[in-house]
Structure of Elongation factor G:
Amino acid sequence: MNTQRTADLRNFAIVGHASAGKTMLAEAMLMCSGVIGRMGSVANGTTVSDYHVSESSTKSPPRPRCYTPSGRGRKFNIIDTPGYLDFLSESLAAFKCSSIFAVVVVHAQHGIGVGTERVWKCATDRGIPKILVVNAMDKPNTRFDEVLAAAREHFGHRVFPLNVPANPGPGFNQILDVLRSDLVTYDATGRGKFREDPAVGPRKERVTQLHRELIELIAESDDTLLAKFFDEGGLSEEELRAGIHAAFQRQLFIPLFCISAETDIGVARLLDFIAKYGSSPRDRRVVAAHNGSDGAIEVPLDGPDPVVQVFKTMAEEHFGEMSFFRVYSGNISTGMELWNSQRNLTERIGQIYLLNGHDRAAVGSLQAGDIGAVVKLKDTHTGNTLCAASHPVTLPTTEYPKPVIHAALKTKAKGEEDRVAAGLATLHDEDPAFQFHVDPELHQTVVSAQGELHLEVVVERLRRRFNVHVDLAEPRVAFRETIKVPAEATYRHKKQTGGAGQFAEVALRIAPGPRDSGITFTESLSGQAVDRVYVPSVERGVQHACTEGIIAGFRAVDVTVDFHDGKMHPVDSNDISFQVAGYWAFKEAFAKAKPCLLEPIHKIEVRIPEECVGKVMGDLSSRRGNILGVDVDGVFQVIRAQVPAKELYRYSSQLRSLTGGRGLHSEEFSHYAEMPHELEQRMLEEAKRKRGGK
């Protein structure tokens, strides 16, 4: 039985830019809590998290890792998230389930990266308090003061250091503790052991000044404390410490710590702060939800009915599918039956586990606010809500960013199509940030992901888990055909087969239509030359020709078509005759109307450090991009541009190369535009070769 009080739970996600040291921070926290006796190494693949086959191929594992150490009278539910922006969705899922606070890790050498800014914004948008941790203070050329200044510039003046490095760089082992106003010296033997001494000389002056500034900052966050500060000239230590928690919850105070995770320096003090002042589930007692009858409702933490949401599902070798969840209300226990409100089915809760990487501890139950995992649910997937059947509710699911990279999936062996389809559906259920669809126009299965690494990981899982042989290829682009001038044509379809024949004559006028207007079909027949009953038949023939394409096999669009004249036969005219005549009349008119090709144009936003602007703009220009403008967002530049979709294949990989992994972009369809003449001629010649090869 899990008996930890809800108020003693500390759920938090460790997030940040790639290579900031998140996994090593989690490793150090596990050692400080006594879960492990010796720290592993990311470089050697010996950390607690390095147990899954997918972790062996990359130093930034593409899945969150959960740890549940206890200590300092608290239970910590730690979710260590991947750093690559390809896997931002994992951070979003972690925010959704932890929804308590985030530990944002910044590398002391590299400073604030695009990934830092992105996860910070995501946490802020969700109202989640944040702690900043400047890691790797033991590395050469660390820039603590610059990082602090950049954090304040980008995240606000409420960012405040609760400790500062006394001897940064190689040999780093001393920090000035602002709360206690002392000098903390860590033992050379490691394992987080330290001694505390009063700060003296310039160090005392600095820590005293910072302590005074902290009192003022906390006083400003509360009117009662501010009045007392002015009346008495300060706050007592008890008032200061009581005010820290409230100010942290409202993000009127953003604590910043300096540490070295690899040498376990400063991590113990960080855990002390989390234990004393960090958020518990009781700081957010209700969560918005929806039910079928009353619409929007709130689920209270202390409600009697169980409400659980799965924030991640993934397959564990020799263990089956594991579902990670958070309990938002009530208690759940092994053997309990819960209702999946999205899929309308009953799930029986099997054995419940608490995890520390590969190690799993079985528990009989979990209470509201806690996080755990369960295996072998029948049909419950990421984002699903489990609740009491008598009180069904649905919690909102995580909104993931739009995919930025697309590829066509090609099967290399016949007979594997069903396994591929089942595998893609399963992987999407586990990771909704990965999407796929079968494009009937282009006759391809297109897979879409958050970046090249995300795409590679998904395909590797597809091959390994479902034993299929697939490759990735450049997806075809959905070009369009249209016309530049009006034209007309008349086509007579006449066929005698011995019995009843076929006869229809159709005269069409066509003209360019507004962009994105599709095909507009009208009739202006006069007299009784053609029975109006055949008008839909002609339109079906025209639409069939448009779908098939006329000059290069792409769909025809933005054309107005007027069926203005024709002839029929009292015996031989029928539906199919007018369909055929309409089809060929449109094709003949189209060929006379100066046909041309249109290409899809995407609107993109590229967020990069200032020093990368020139390289990125040059690359966009080489891709026939039209730069719309450059905006400033804190320490980053945001380039807005329009680029042909054909030029954006695997653009995220090139952007990462140009910016050293510090750039990210988003893209979405904007409009169709006429293709340059030289490119159009190449496309037409290629289409002609394909038709000739058939």
